[in-house]
Write a structure and sequence with these properties.
The complex is a heterodimer. Chain A is α/β, with parallel strands linked by helices. Chain A is built from eleven helices and twelve strands. Chain B has three domains: 179 residues, HUPs (Rossmann fold, 3-Layer(aba) Sandwich); 62 residues, Adenine nucleotide alpha hydrolases-like domains (SH3 type barrels, Roll); 91 residues, Translation factors (Elongation Factor Tu (Ef-tu), domain 3). In chain B, helix 1 runs parallel beside helix 2, helix 1 packs across helix 7 and helix 3 runs antiparallel to helix 4. Classes of the chains: A alpha/beta, B alpha+beta. Chain B: Keywords: ATP-binding, Cytoplasm, Disulfide bond, Methyltransferase, Nucleotide-binding, RNA-binding, Transferase, tRNA processing, tRNA-binding.
């Protein structure tokens, strides 16, 4: 069975160029970047070059503002926990949104248990916050505002530039979880007045267990993982230099193709939506579909069909899509994002699927998805 | 061998050895096998330790060993509405329900069956010790499992022929020891896993404690039918007719025989106790039952017929005469010999030889025509 991967917001396959770079590095550059030896210096050079590529990709002022981490989760945790710790005497109020990733929401919940106050901004039906609500929520003791750039479940984008402007006039720092948007959107931390930004390499055809946290110069966050003095004392642990070189390669690929990729994804999405309409499937798009959203993600509500049954049928036909996150017993949890958008009693919460495209998807694959999905939905409805 | 590869069988996998071997055998027979784990209980609903995560991990391990896809489906709502609500309600009425019977009727052979059909299944398979016989005309008969010690038809007795039409019980013709042997030889991760003994949602934990998290316990008096006060009970729902444990009454000089629950009165919140395993209040000669359900049509047996019956799981069969009322929605069942500890809320399951005919839910027990005070 030909398999189709349409779950690129979950993770992406590594690009051949990335694999090649990493393989070369693993063979030839194995030194410890902190070591005083020619081996160490070789590794250090690769590390510095990679860091430079990445710093440029988000228009950071200095390469030193990039701290490599184990991925999006560590970046989010570090930004939130270490800001809260460092600024605990300036204030204990934090603002975030109801639709953040768990890697943001769980640290927030922990901080609440430690006496911090967290305001969760609501979102409208399109999954977008209200800037006035943000303005009203900001206080003198607000130390951090954490708002994701693009949502992983429905693809909604937040007005990052406006948020940056608003937050920069307050005492708070501005963190954005950029995991889903990095490599797709143009990111400019200076223009958008971003203080902290999290990314993950495996969402843009890079290696897993790797990401970075952008920390604006002058924040002076303390290390979350303590130990050796790597990453200018901001993240202990020997750097995975081959993977970091692969990450830089993935960023280069993305930077070069971003515009074309965005067009490609919009076209695939349009094809999927039109194809399903043509088949007479009763569905709605969750959130916006006007080009303002993340182009690679589309969340669809299939009226009267449970997400788990659809997802399983797709998988039995070799097609990978997604429907929120699974609990430890494998069954789907109601999506907090769709709940925030439509309320917990909306059927959309349990009857939606997410398709997310990547650089290797083709139009033929989308045609096959339309065919299998339509057949499945018609069969399920007929069986009742 | 016949080509089964175009026949899709969705196996209910619990993470135990029985359903693991089911999936394994079907895969070996060449079926298109899909494993599905049912999550029926939200562990956040009570304070107990739930093994659902470990069980699902075992499903994943076994499915990967066998080489089949596996999934999980959430039936918490179906279980809550169809099984647990009924379960609590029965306890509230002083009866002793059987949630496993309801789970089969409302979840495994209803919600799960429907779900499997949505997955384009031709059959569903379960790891029950029971067998199915299909007549040429399509009539389905439920037969006892070959392992008489493990036979689970008691729990399947409320299913209709329609619910069993698409069911397979691949290990129903085997002994438990054979099942374990197959699992060991195949190297399945669950080969040595302990059998679960508890009700699916309660698991191995303390039953009274569990129940008290959902129903307020109302303590009251323990009395003999002769009117003697014997102490306090901690809520009628914690006691079953014929039970010995947990009464805390010592010998009283007259007799050293142990004390048993011999009756209940919900209206006065009284628990009746009496001495001796063979206490006369524990023996009934007939009962009546409603909520009747039969696997195959039984009209041709007439208004009245003789067969055997079980009044609880794993009990030996007893000879009984079944008398239907005119509407055929209630039966009076007269025993060949008196039966001890008939429990309202439990099923009375009817057998004809190896065939499980169906069952009803016990409402009242009688001793020579006199109603026994059991509820």
């Amino acid at each position: 069975m030909e398999r189709i991967y349409a779950d690129n917001a979950g993770t992406t396959p590594m690009a051949a160029e990335v694999i090649e770079t990493m393989t070369e590095m693993m063979k030839n550059v194995f030194g410890n970047a902190s070591a005083v030896s020619s081996f160490g210096r070789e590794a250090r050079r690769v590390l510095d070059e990679s860091r430079h590529v990445i710093a440029e990709s988000i228009n950071a002022k200095s390469d030193n503002e990039i701290v490599f981490t184990s991925g999006g989760t560590e970046s989010d945790n570090t930004a939130i926990m270490q800001t809260a710790f460092l600024r605990r005497n300036e204030g204990r109020h934090i603002i975030t949104t109801a639709i953040e990733h768990e890697a943001v929401l769980k640290p927030m919940a922990f901080l609440e248990s430690q006496g911090y106050e967290v305001t969760y901004l609501s979102v409208d039906e399109n999954g977008i916050i209200d800037l006035n609500e943000l303005k009203d929520a900001l206080r003198d003791d607000t130390i951090l505002v954490s708002v994701m750039m693009g949502n992983n479940e429905v693809g909604s984008r937040q007005p990052i530039h406006e948020i940056g402007e608003i937050v920069s006039e307050s005492n708070a720092w501005f963190h954005t979880d950029c995991v889903q948007a990095y490599g797709i959107l143009d990111v400019d931390v200076q223009k958008d007045k971003i203080d902290l930004l999290s990314t993950s390499a495996h969402k843009l055809n890079g290696p897993k267990f790797l990401g970075f946290l952008y920390e604006r110069e002058g924040l002076n966050l303390k290390a979350y993982l303590r130990g050796g003095d790597q990453e200018l004392k901001r993240r202990a642990g020997t750097e995975n230099v081959p993977a970091i070189a692969g990450f830089a390669k993935a960023v280069e690929l993305a930077s070069a193709d971003k515009k074309e990729l965005r067009e490609k994804f919009q076209n695939l999405k349009k094809k999927l939506v039109e194809g399903l309409e043509h088949q007479g499937i009763d569905f709605e798009i969750n959130g916006l579909h006007d080009g303002s959203e993340l182009p690679q993600i589309v969340s669809l509500w299939f009226k009267g069909c449970q997400s788990d049954a659809l997802l399983t049928n797709l998988d039995l036909n070799g097609i990978a899509a997604s429907a929120g996150s699974a609990c430890t017993a494998g069954s789907l949890e109601p999506s907090h994002v769709l709940t925030a958008m439509y309320g917990k009693d909306s059927p959309k919460v349990s009857e939606s699927l997410r398709f997310s495209f990547g650089r290797y998807n083709t139009e033929e694959e989308v045609e096959r998805i339309i065919e299998v999905l339509s057949k499945t939905i018609k069969r399920i409805k007929k069986g009742r | 061998m016949t080509d089964n590869s175009r026949i899709r069988v969705v196996v209910g996998m619990s993470g135990g050895v029985d359903s693991s071997v089911c999936a394994y055998l079907l895969k070996r027979q060449g079926y298109d096998v899909v494993g599905v784990f049912m999550k029926n209980w939200d562990e956040k609903k009570d304070s107990g330790v739930c093994t659902v995560t470990e069980d699902y991990q075992d499903v994943a391990k076994v499915a990967n060993e066998i080489g089949i896809p596996y999934y999980s489906v959430n039936f918490e709502k179906e279980y809550w509405d169809g099984v647990f609500t009924y379960f609590l309600d029965e306890y509230r009425h002083g009866r002793t329900p059987n949630p496993d019977v309801m789970c089969n009727k409302e979840v495994k052979f209803k919600a799960f069956l429907d779900y499997a059909m949505e997955l384009d299944a031709d059959y569903i398979a379960m790891g029950h010790y029971a067998q199915i016989k299909r007549d040429d005309d399509g009539t389905v008969h439920l037969m006892r499992g070959a392992d008489q010690n493990k036979d689970q038809t008691y729990f399947l007795s409320q299913l209709s022929g329609k619910q069993l039409e698409k069911a397979m019980f691949p290990i129903g013709g085997m002994q438990k020891s054979e099942v374990r042997e197959i699992a060991k030889k195949a190297g399945l991760a669950t080969a040595d896993k302990k059998d679960s003994t508890g009700v699916c949602f309660i698991g191995e934990r303390n039953f009274s404690k569990f129940l008290s998290e959902f129903l307020p316990a109302k303590p009251g008096k323990m009395m003999t039918f002769e009117g003697e006060y014997k102490g306090e009970h901690f809520g009628l729902m914690n006691y079953t007719i014929g039970q010995r444990r947990g009464l805390g009454i010592g010998g009283d000089g007259k007799s050293n025989e142990p004390w048993f629950v011999v009756g209940k009165d919900l209206k006065t919140n009284t628990l009746y106790v009496g001495q001796g395993y063979h206490n006369e209040h524990l023996y009934a000669t007939s009962l009546d039952a409603t909520k009747l359900s039969f696997v195959a049509p039984i009209e041709d047996r007439g208004q009245s017929f003789h067969c055997t019956a079980k009044f609880r799981y794993r009990q030996k069969d007893s000879g009984v005469t079944v008398n239907f009322n005119d509407e055929r929605n209630k039966v009076e069942v007269v025993f060949d010999n008196p039966v001890r500890a008939i429990t309202p809320g439990q099923e009375i399951v009817f057998y004809d030889g190896e065939e499980c005919l169906g069952s009803g839910t016990i409402d009242h027990a009688y001793q020579n025509g006199r109603l026994l005070q059991y509820v």
